[in-house]
Amino acid sequence: MSLVLDPAAQDLLFREARTANTFTDEPVTEEQVQAIYDLVKYGPTAFNQTPLRITLVRSAEARERLVQHMAEGNQAKTAAAPLVAILSADNEFHEELPALFPAFPQAKDLFFSERPARENAAGLNAALQAAYFIVGIRAAGLAAGPMTGFDFEGVRKEFLDDDHTPLMVVNIGKPGPDAWYPRSPRLDFDQVVTTV
Questions:
Q1: Could you count the other beta carbons within 10 Å of the beta carbon of residue 58?
Q2: d(Cα 56, Cα 173) in Å, to the nearest integer?
Q3: Distances from the Cα of 30 to the Cαs of 36, 58, 127, in angstroms?
Q4: Model confidence over 4-24: pLDDT tens digits?
Q5: How far is the C-alpha of 50 from the C-alpha of 126, rounded, in Å?
Q6: CA 17 to CA 171: how far, in whole Å?
Q7: Are the C-beta atoms of residues 126 and 49 closer than 8 Å to each other?
Q8: Using CB atoms within 10 A as the burial measure, which of 8, 11, 68, 173 is most buried?
Q9: Which residues of 62-72 are buried (b: 16+ CB within 10 A; e: fewer)?
């Protein structure tokens, strides 16, 4: 059985895509980011809670502040990428639930009145959205360099607030010279899938 998605699109989004480590200096426009979001916002989350928040780091001053919190191996590529996004989980996402999930507006108070429940839900569902965001970057013909090698608390204090938990930093742009490491191995189907 073949997939419905065109093989060229399969390659663009998955088989040929890699985590980019270098980028050209071609800018990433606000219109490109808007188009990416307008596509990936339709990815599913529980109760349509959509807790992902995206902080675009564009100014030189903000970039310098961010680079200080990156792991040493991630500093140079973060400093040089055309655009950097900080992806975080909004732990107060439940305030939007009555509008986002009108089929069951009571979900806000029934399931998410306690902060620990919100943090767990926000972390899982924002991580799903982060994955959609990476695939959306690829769909725009750009490359993504997602990283978790940074000082999470430092980034939270520098760019966010107590209601937001940083998940990852993503460098975005057109891939530059020697952007890719060789493709790493993947697990085979029978190593991952069990039928019961």
A1: 14
A2: 13
A3: 10, 10, 23
A4: 999 999 999 999 999 999 999
A5: 7
A6: 14
A7: no
A8: 173
A9: bbeebbebbee
